[in-house]
Amino acid sequence: MEASAQSRKEQAGDFESPGPTLTFSNISYAVNLKKTFSIKKGEEKWILQNVSGIMKPGMNALLGPTGSGKTSLLDVLAHRKNPKGIKSGQVQLNGQFVDSSSHQPSAYVVQDDILMGTLSVRENLEFSANLRLSKKEYNAEERQKKVNEVIQELGLQDCASTKIGTEFLRGISGGERKRCSIGMELITSPSLLFLDEPTTGLDANTANSIMHLLYMLSRNSRTIIFSIHQPRYSIFRLFDSLTLMNKGQIIYQGPGAEALDYFTEIGFKCEPYNNPSDFFLDVINGAVTSSLETPNSVGGRTMKNFLRNPQTSVVQVFMMIFFGILNGLIFFQIPNTMPEALQNRIGAFFFLIINQVFGNLSAVELFIKEKVLFIHENSSGYYRTSAYFLSKILIDLIPNRIIPIFGLAAISYFMIGLKEDVTSFFLFILTISLTSLAAVSLAFFVSASANTFAAANALIAIPYVLMMVFGGFLVNLNGMLNWLSWLKWISIFRYGLDALAINELKGQIFYSNLTLFYGEAYLDQQGINHSTWGFWQNEVALFCMTIVFMFLAFVQLLTVNKWK
Ligand SMILES: Nc1ncnc2c1ncn2[C@@H]1O[C@H](COP(=O)(O)OP(=O)(O)OP(=O)(O)O)[C@@H](O)[C@H]1O
């Protein structure tokens, strides 16, 4: 392919004199599907939709699947379509507006050769010259000269005297017939030549020679615009400009030699030895997918998975509701009297956090299964790691954790009878959400690092248990050995529990007979900083842990990718 680009570059300066430039903008074309004999106005079928582009001097190919609108665009540009159907758009030739009434120096070679079978090649060309060259400008001798020039240019000398042929009369070959058809149009010296599928019906070699002929013509003051079906590579490399069409729209227009680079850039990779034009049609037909799927498109599938996979969505919600009710029943309407007032509140929070953290053990299995799919799809070029990662976080992890928490929190909060205060309720939700996200991020990181479910399960259980022990509920952190006490700084449990305790106990007064117990006194006793920053530092810590684990998970996924 690079060699082709090179050869095209070498050819870039090979115009003897360049032909005109045709530009078109916002062309829309529709046909009326009115039934015969019906007086009702028929439905409109849009065949071209707002197409714009440029046809420069040289070979301009219109490529696309059948019915994509190639012929229609060619006809509109050549002003062969009924102007009533042209709903919008303009065509300019060398910067001058042209329409069907303008005298355009153009010619159109139709797909089926329309030649007089009983006449020879020369006679057909003379017929064209006699009728189309003005007698004032061309005398008989000049017309004959023109015919000879065309015969020469098209290499028709050997068959000039041979009859075209009919059903009953063996005539010239298919390639010579096509050359003759082109010659019929070249008689008028058009600088703009339109051809509808010039290679259809010709064998590969003849098609090649016709396209080489057009290539030679395009180097000599002519701009050639043609529609074509799946040309072979030797033909494709002759295209100066390629316009790829699909469903009445242009999906690529630019140098033929750069089309492959363009598709590679947007993630569509052409297999070695694949014919580029076959590849482009495969891209249009969806047989080839982009390796640069955006987070959107990967996200589309993640979203469907999220909605359709009960393991990751509906069951999550039901589990949360179940645990919310269970928590509410165990710690139902905790009284404000000591010691239950404190003990049970902290117990309820611990239950909630255990539920959020250890609930991820089952997620690890899903992550590991999904990783196998990710490795396959990522190494096969379906999407980039970042696209998978972002869609996983934004469409799976975050909504899957946060949405059910609203249900869990609402049920637990009111069943337990926690502080009746709106701000406290939302800070309660925030704390549980951040705890859940930090825990799931750690599970994601471990799953991204481990190769088997067993290894991932063991690896995730260790930090979870350590975090629980150093969470402040099971062990009083103040009395802990100094060399171990640092572990509390990496405990999701501690940050979650401390934040929930401050949120609930600060400003509350509990009773034991006639003695008053202030919530702050308990917090002080546990060494929990209950200032405003004291509360928020826990949220910040949970948020930072989430980001760090997510980042590490991403790095791990990138490494997995490199190993493949
Ligand atoms: N007069 C018409 N009435 C109804 N539909 C039409 C008309 N002209 C074109 N179409 C439709 O418009 C679409 C584009 O047609 P067009 O012939 O331009 O496509 P094409 O890419 O050149 O196809 P092919 O490669 O098969 O020649 C097709 O679906 C065709 O059926």
From TrEMBL:
<dbReference type="InterPro" id="IPR003593">
    <property type="entry name" value="AAA+_ATPase"/>
</dbReference>
<dbReference type="GO" id="GO:0005524">
    <property type="term" value="F:ATP binding"/>
</dbReference>
<feature type="domain" description="ABC transporter">
    <location>
        <begin position="22"/>
        <end position="272"/>
    </location>
</feature>
<dbReference type="Pfam" id="PF00005">
    <property type="entry name" value="ABC_tran"/>
</dbReference>
<comment type="similarity">
    <text>Belongs to the ABC transporter superfamily. ABCG family. Eye pigment precursor importer (TC 3.A.1.204) subfamily.</text>
</comment>
<dbReference type="InterPro" id="IPR027417">
    <property type="entry name" value="P-loop_NTPase"/>
</dbReference>
<feature type="transmembrane region" description="Helical">
    <location>
        <begin position="346"/>
        <end position="368"/>
    </location>
</feature>
<dbReference type="GO" id="GO:0016324">
    <property type="term" value="C:apical plasma membrane"/>
</dbReference>
<dbReference type="GO" id="GO:0140359">
    <property type="term" value="F:ABC-type transporter activity"/>
</dbReference>
<keyword id="KW-0812">Transmembrane</keyword>
<feature type="transmembrane region" description="Helical">
    <location>
        <begin position="453"/>
        <end position="475"/>
    </location>
</feature>
<dbReference type="GO" id="GO:0015562">
    <property type="term" value="F:efflux transmembrane transporter activity"/>
</dbReference>
<keyword id="KW-0067">ATP-binding</keyword>
<feature type="transmembrane region" description="Helical">
    <location>
        <begin position="313"/>
        <end position="334"/>
    </location>
</feature>
<dbReference type="InterPro" id="IPR043926">
    <property type="entry name" value="ABCG_dom"/>
</dbReference>
<keyword id="KW-0813">Transport</keyword>
<dbReference type="GO" id="GO:0016887">
    <property type="term" value="F:ATP hydrolysis activity"/>
</dbReference>
<keyword id="KW-1133">Transmembrane helix</keyword>
<feature type="transmembrane region" description="Helical">
    <location>
        <begin position="389"/>
        <end position="416"/>
    </location>
</feature>
<dbReference type="InterPro" id="IPR003439">
    <property type="entry name" value="ABC_transporter-like_ATP-bd"/>
</dbReference>
<feature type="transmembrane region" description="Helical">
    <location>
        <begin position="422"/>
        <end position="446"/>
    </location>
</feature>
<dbReference type="GO" id="GO:0008514">
    <property type="term" value="F:organic anion transmembrane transporter activity"/>
</dbReference>
<dbReference type="Pfam" id="PF01061">
    <property type="entry name" value="ABC2_membrane"/>
</dbReference>
<protein>
    <submittedName>
        <fullName>ATP-binding cassette, sub-family G (WHITE), member 2b</fullName>
    </submittedName>
</protein>
<dbReference type="Pfam" id="PF19055">
    <property type="entry name" value="ABC2_membrane_7"/>
</dbReference>
<feature type="transmembrane region" description="Helical">
    <location>
        <begin position="540"/>
        <end position="560"/>
    </location>
</feature>
<dbReference type="InterPro" id="IPR013525">
    <property type="entry name" value="ABC2_TM"/>
</dbReference>
<keyword id="KW-0472">Membrane</keyword>
<keyword id="KW-0547">Nucleotide-binding</keyword>
<dbReference type="InterPro" id="IPR050352">
    <property type="entry name" value="ABCG_transporters"/>
</dbReference>
